[in-house]
Design a protein that fits this description.
Blueprint: H1 3-29, E1 44-50, H2 55-66, E2 73-78, H3 83-96, E3 99-102, H4 109-119, E4 124-128, E5 132-134, H5 138-142, E6 151-160, H6 166-185, E7 199-203, H7 204-207, H8 211-215, E8 218-219, E9 222-223, H9 228-238, E10 242-253, H10 259-280, H11 284-287, H12 289-318, H13 323-337, H14 339-345, H15 347-362, H16 367-373
Parallel strand pairs: 1-2, 1-4, 2-3, 6-10
Antiparallel strand pairs: 4-7, 5-10, 6-7, 8-9
Helix pairs in contact: 1-6, 1-12, 2-3, 6-15, 9-10, 10-16, 13-15, 14-15
Length: 383
């Protein structure tokens, strides 16, 4: 067996093992639920940073937060948005009387988040993206795990709001796997590596002392903007607190509707993954064997996937007939990878995950090497 064949064999077994590792801990984690309500005498603040949002969507988002079954303090931070966004925010503030801060110019999402944290009165701080609509009990469910004093952060269950078109349907399948398989599998030891910015909650006493570090994070000599959710999660994990995924805290978020928007979003997420994996390497081995194993295993699969795909497409370029067996393999692996979607959501939804796998191979995957090549570019990319 030559070196290339050996490499492919090792990667193949590692890929299959990775899938079943996820499902094994996903099964164990399903028994971990927090049913006890968070004490009503402790306050909850919800912070919504806003920048140039679609007015109709923004109105839906704010009103869904105000209709929560749990009493909350709402703080909306207008990060120097255009007139159209500012007008709808001022109308909503006049109607509902929530706390409203308006920046004269765009300061960046982290500054908006930090401003909200400093002004919030709640013991628990929840962040909601301005393009996200919450189910009525989302906040009440999201904060239940904080009945455990070691709980530092929680993250909700994000699904796609705009599933009317083909791209939204495919992204919905990807989100389902990301949250209900990947994140849930890490509940077993309470070390979910990212509390998604779509809907996440943090214990204020943990993040407030770290807020300046959060604001001034540097990577490759530049102050960082993107990846705020991953870095804030790392700051919690670094202190030895738990991070938990709550599947009953449902948030419907607006997904990209065009391929170039999806590519830019994925590039931004990949950059933050690379940066925060390096950050986590400083402390993960001290706090959790599970987190260390998961981080290293995921990194191995991620970076070796570049080598594998470059090799595969090089062979296909030289021998075009190989494209058919290649996509047969992609189909089989996608089915194994997403078997939970077929079982839990039905054949139609499962098939969406197969189609997403094709989109990933042909288009989305290339956001990873693009992210590596543009790591020093800190622009947000989708606004």
């Amino acid at each position: 067996m030559n070196a290339v064949a050996l490499y492919i064999t090792i990667y193949t077994f590692a890929a299959i093992g990775y899938v079943w590792y996820r499902y094994f801990f996903n099964f164990l984690s399903r028994q971990k639920k927090y049913k006890k309500n968070f004490p009503k005498d402790q306050n909850v603040s919800v912070i919504v940073p806003v920048y140039n949002e679609i007015p109709k969507l923004l109105k839906q988002s704010i009103e869904s937060i105000l209709r929560q079954t749990r009493n909350i303090e709402l703080l909306v931070i207008n990060d120097g948005s255009n007139r159209r966004t500012a007008d709808i925010l001022e109308q909503l503030q006049h109607a509902y009387k929530f706390s409203y801060v308006k920046f004269k110019k765009n300061m960046g999402k982290r500054v908006a988040m930090a401003t909200g944290v400093k002004r919030a009165s709640g013991d628990i701080i929840a962040f909601v993206d301005s393009d996200t609509v919450l189910k009525p009990n989302a906040i009440e469910e999201l904060i239940k795990p904080f009945s455990n004093p070691k709980m530092g952060a929680t993250t909700g269950n994000a699904t796609v709001l705009n599933q009317g078109k083909w791209l939204g349907k495919l992204i919905a399948a990807r989100y389902y796997y990301a949250f209900n398989v990947e994140r849930r599998s890490m509940n077993y030891t309470g070390v979910v590596p990212v509390a998604s910015g779509v809907l996440a909650a943090f214990r204020k006493s943990i993040i407030l002392p770290k807020i300046e570090s959060f604001l001034n994070q540097k990577f490759l000599g530049k102050v960082q903007q993107y990846g705020d959710d991953r870095h804030l999660t790392n700051l919690v994990l670094e202190q030895g607190y738990k991070v938990f995924y709550v599947d009953s805290a449902v948030a419907l978020t607006h997904a990209p509707e065009k391929l170039f928007q999806l590519f830019k979003q994925q590039m931004r997420w990949r950059k933050s993954y690379i940066r925060e994996t390096l950050y986590a390497a400083k402390f993960m081995w001290k706090i959790s064997k599970m987190l260390t194993f998961d981080t290293l295993y995921t990194a191995y699969m991620t970076y070796n996937s570049i080598v594998m795909r470059l090799m595969a497409w090089a062979f296909i370029f030289l021998y075009p007939i190989l494209i058919l067996p290649y996509f047969i393999i992609v189909t089989i692996m996608a089915f194994v990878h997403n078997i939970a979607l077929f079982v839990e959501r039905g054949v139609k939804f499962g098939l969406q995950s197969i189609l997403y796998a094709y989109l990933y191979e042909l288009f989305v995957f290339w956001s990873l090497p693009a992210a590596i090549l543009t790591l020093n570019n800190t622009e947000w990319g989708t606004r």
